[in-house]
């Protein structure tokens, strides 16, 4: 059962069990090769914001899925085994895994508050799927081994395993090779999206080189300086498809961002700012200039020091 509800009728009102699905930010993304099966090999420095979608969970007599939020109208609402929404896929595949092990996975009401733009390069659907897995394991009071959960997450999408952790990390391969970065700083960013659709397959088709230089070792310098030496290899082809990406980057630069770059396959860009106060001021100024676009000041995961204060 699918429906769009207001905040007063979502399952949190009944249960209080919820999971955040934070925005995923590719601070750098290098395309370093291509496998024989066509998948591109990536290296990416990834972090996660304190802003994102929210999923609420409650026991129910039958499965229900409802949604609200600014970007709820853009959700795919397929149902059953052919569901397009990753939350429903996560629910159904986790339930199947548990039932194969003789564990109960009774009906559940899930509410998704969709605060992140859809298909925006910030892992919204993948973060939702990861949050669904975490929340359902808590609601059903069951455990799955880490390897099993990682395999299930990867089946749902290349970004889902990293979203399960939602910590700063270096990601290689197609998303399955994850190295946590415990010393990575928390950053003050502004996320900006012109709300123009971007076709990821088209971007990869326009990518001139598939074997670009890897990220390489950081060395002893500052993380922010190191990020400045890196790049997003998908940004040039994305800009050729969506001119608004260049426009939104220029707007962030005009607000004195220390670093501006596209995240993922776009069209979301981020601007790095000295403090959260300056990030919030920049986001407010940009929203006044473009009220129909998406701007959000965020604090990322990591140690709160340096430029993150």
TrEMBL record:
Residues 85-165 form the GHMP kinase N-terminal domain. Keywords: ATP-binding, Isoprene biosynthesis, Kinase, Nucleotide-binding, Transferase. The active site is at 24, 159. Residues 220-289 form the GHMP kinase C-terminal domain. Belongs to the GHMP kinase family. IspE subfamily. HAMAP family: IspE (MF_00061). This is 4-diphosphocytidyl-2-C-methyl-D-erythritol kinase. The lineage of its organism: Bacteria, Pseudomonadati, Pseudomonadota, Alphaproteobacteria, Hyphomicrobiales.
